[in-house]
């Protein structure tokens, strides 16, 4: 993926996750059962700055593009399932939230591996 495209894509999702996180947290604060929306808000708010960090790291962090893509996909599945479950009583599809959680963990693990084995210097 071209660097400019990666920056724009991660920036768009960081902004959307931040906005959704604030909105979900506000909605959850008005409910008796905050569990689902509160968890969805937390996932959005945690991963928005993580994506900004991956933008800042750029190509210095090996696997940053794949790490960010996994984090985005994981948040969409996990938070999306919780929000849909809250409002409709059914999730996106069976095991979507756990799948999203595992995908997010893979993204974080790949971020750690990328930090341990940085990109080779270009001379």
UniProtKB/TrEMBL annotation:
InterPro entries (UniProt xref): DUF423 (IPR006696)
Transmembrane feature ranges: 7-30, 36-56, 63-83, 95-117
Tree of life domain: Bacteria
Name of a matching Pfam family: DUF423
The entry's keywords: Membrane, Transmembrane, Transmembrane helix
Name of protein: Uncharacterized membrane protein YgdD (TMEM256/DUF423 family)
Natural source organism: Rhizobium aquaticum
């Amino acid at each position: 993926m071209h660097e400019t495209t990666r920056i724009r894509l991660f920036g768009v999702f960081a902004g959307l996750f931040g906005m959704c996180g604030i909105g979900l947290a506000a909605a959850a604060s008005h409910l008796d059962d905050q569990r689902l929306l509160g968890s969805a808000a937390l996932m959005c708010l945690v991963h928005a700055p993580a994506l900004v960090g991956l933008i800042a790291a750029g190509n210095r962090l090996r696997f940053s593009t794949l790490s960010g893509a996994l984090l985005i996909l994981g948040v969409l599945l996990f938070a999306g399932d919780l929000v849909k479950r809250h409002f409709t009583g059914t999730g996106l599809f069976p095991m979507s939230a756990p799948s999203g959680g595992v995908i997010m963990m893979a993204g974080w693990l790949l971020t750690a591996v990328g930090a341990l084995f940085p990109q080779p210097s270009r001379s």
